[in-house]
Amino acid sequence: MISKDLLDILVCPKCKGSLRLDKEKERLICNECKLAYPIKDDIPVMLIEEAEKI
Question: What span, in angstroms and rounded, lies between the C-alpha atoms of 29 and 18?
């Protein structure tokens, strides 16, 4: 899973806001944009077009 250090430096590519980790669904969530970025093979996919609206 993603390390705390990596999570601390990652930001939402759309709004540059902070992200929170959803361990259960393996994704990073931006509360501002209401987007969820998937984590595939322990690598966050930080592409806006790959994000899921929540």
Answer: 9
Whole-angstrom distance, CA of residue 12 vs CA of residue 23 = 17
Residue 28 to residue 38: CA distance in whole angstroms: 6
Mode of pairing for the β-strands spanning 43-44 and 27-30: unpaired
| CATH match of 4-53 with 2.20.25.10 | yes
| Entry pTM | 0.91
Which residue blocks in the chain are alpha helix, DSSP H? 4-9
Domain ranges of the chain: 4-53
**Mean pLDDT of each 10-residue bin along the chain, 54 residues long:** 90 97 96 97 95 97
